[in-house]
Amino acid sequence: MTFKPDVIVVGAGLAGLVATHELVRAGRRVLVLDQENRANLGGQAFWSLGGLFFVDSPEQRRLGIKDSHGLALRDWLDSAGFDREDEDLWARRWAEAYVRFAATEKRQYLYDLGLRVTPIVGWAERGGGMAGGHGNSVPRFHLTWGTGPEVVRVFAEPVLDGERRGLVQFAFRHQVDELVIEDEVVTGVRGTVLVPSEQPRGVKSSREKAGEFEFRAKAVLVSSGGIGHNHELVRRNWPVERLGPVPRTMIPGVPAHVDGRMIGISETAGARVVNRDRMWHYTEGLHNWDPIWPDHAIRIIPGPSSLWFDATGARLPAPDFPGFDTNHTLKTILSTGYDYSWFVLTQTILEKEFILSGSEQNPDITGKSLRRTLASRAAKGAPGPVDAFKRHGVDFVVADDVPALVEGMNKLSRGPILDPAELTRQIVARDLEVGNPYSKDLQLMAVANARRFVGDRVARVVKPHRILDPAHGPLIAVRLNILTRKTLGGIQTDLDSRALRTDGTPLPGLYAAGEVAGFGGGGVHGYNALEGSFLGGCIFSGRAAGRAMAKE
C-alpha cells in the first residue's frame, strides 16, 4: 500500500465521517475501513429520521418554547441517573459538554455545512410525570430537512472531496479482527478482506474471506457502532433486575452489520468497556412488510392518544403512555411475562399521530420536496407508508367493532386470549371521560397538555374523541414488539475521545467515537435517552476525536 495514513478510521458511519471531515480540514491523511461496501457509506445514520437535539433554538423560540441550557442540563442529568462513580465519571463530563454544545455551537456548526431543519419541533420522550424525573420538559426534537441521508450527506461530501484530493482512501469490505499493539501503543489494525459485494445499502452481505490485511498509522479511531443486530450480545448484557426478563422475541431496527465486534476487539487490546447493561430498545416495533435486512423492524413514533394494552388486555398505567417513558414502559410490558403489547386506536388517530421512524418511511421529507410534504400531510387519510403498513403489515388488525377487532388480535397473540367484553369495558370507561374538557384520566390530561403546544395541536395530536365513535373508525389494533436499537454503554473515553484503560489512563494511539463509545465517555445518556440525541452524540464525539487526532 503506497498510501501512508496519519489516522485509520474503523467504521464509515456518521461518527467516522465526522472525524474524517475534521482530519481532512486539518490536512491529515486518513484511511477509512469498513466491512460493508461503498453503498453503505454513512452506516446506520442513513436510515434514521434525522432527529437532532437542540436547546433554545430559533425554531423553538418561534413556536413560543422557552428552553435554556440550565433546563436541558437538568432534564439530561435527571434522565441519565448517573450512579456509578467510576463507570460514569467521564459519561457525566461528556453529558455536561454535550448539552453545552447543543445549546451553543451545534446548530451553527451543522448550518455551516448546509444542514437545515423543519420548522415544527417535536416533543419526544415526554417523561415519567415528575418535573425532576426522566423526560424532556419542552419539545426539543428537530427534524432534519432530508432526514438521515441529509445528515450523512453534509459530512460525506467533504470527505469524498478529500478522497479526490488524495487525503482520504477507503478500504471497503475490510473487516478488522485485531488492533496492532507495539510497546503498549496501538499502531494499526489487522483483519480479513471480504469478498466483494454488490448488495444494495442495508442488505446483509457475505462474510466469505478473500484475503488478509495489515495497516499502520499514528492513531486508530474505532467508530464501528453498537450491538443492535447482535441479539446474542443483547441477551447476554440484558439488565434483568432493572428491565425484567429477556424478551423471547426481538426484532432488529438496524442492519445485520451492526454486530458490536469492535467493542470486544478494543477490550482485548486494553480499552475499558463500561455500562454494558445500558441499552435503548423500543416497545413500538413492527415487522417490516417490505424488509431490507433480516427481520427488518420499523418503530412507530406515536402521538399520545392511542390506548395501550399489555398482552393480557390490561390498559397500561401512567406514565406508560405512547411517547412518554421508553424504559419504564418496557419494564411494565415485560413484567407481564410476555414480550409484546397492543395499541388500540381509530383511523383518525392513525392519520395524524402515527409517524414511522426511518428515512425510507418518510419519502417526502427525505426527498426535501416541500410540495410533496405539504400535499402528503394535508391530504385526507394516513400518509402513504403508514397506510401501507395498515394494509400489508402482519401486526395490524382493522375492524368495525370490538368483537371483530379482538378476534383478529387473538389470531396474532403470542400469549393470552383476550376477552372482548373486558377490552370494551376499559375503552368505554375512557370514552366516558371525553365529554368534558377536563378529566380524571391521566392520559387524556396528557393529551390536553400536548395540544396546548401549537406544534402538537397543528401537526401531531388529534382532538380527543370517543374510540368507539363510528365517525372516527374503523378501529385499529397494532401488535407492538420489542425492537432492538441502541447501545448506551461502550468504550470509556475522555473528552478528546481517547480510549481509556482500566486504570483510567489513555491507551496510546486508540480513540473511540459514536455508539461504540456509548456516544461519548462510555455512556453519555446514562440509563435513558432524550431522543434526537443519538446522531448528535455521533457528531459531537466524532468531532472531538477528529480535532484531537489532528492536533496529535
UniProtKB/TrEMBL annotation:
GO molecular-function term, one example from the UniProt record: oxidoreductase activity, acting on the CH-CH group of donors
Q: Name one Pfam family in it.
A: FAD_binding_2
- Can the keyword Membrane be found in this entry's annotation? no
For this UniProt record, the keywords arranged alphabetically read as follows: Flavoprotein, Oxidoreductase
Q: Does the keyword Flavoprotein apply?
A: yes
Gene3D superfamilies hit by this protein = FAD/NAD(P)-binding domain
Q: Which InterPro entries match?
A: FAD-dep_OxRdtase_2_FAD-bd (IPR003953), FAD/NAD-bd_sf (IPR036188), KsdD_DH (IPR014614)
Q: Where is the FAD-dependent oxidoreductase 2 FAD-binding domain?
A: 6-535
NCBIfam families, alphabetized: PRK12834.1
Record-given protein name:
FAD-dependent oxidoreductase 2 FAD-binding domain-containing protein
